Amino acid sequence: MFDDLRDLYQEVILDHGRKPRNFRRLEDADRHARGDNPLCGDRMELWVKLDGDGHIADAAFQGKGCAISMASASLMTETVRGKSAAEAKELGTKFRELAMTGTCPDCGADLAEEMERLQVLGGVAEYPSRVKCATLAWHTLNAALEGAKEASSE
Ligand code: FES
Question: Residue whose CA is closest, atom 4 of ligand 1?
Answer without folding.
Answer: 133
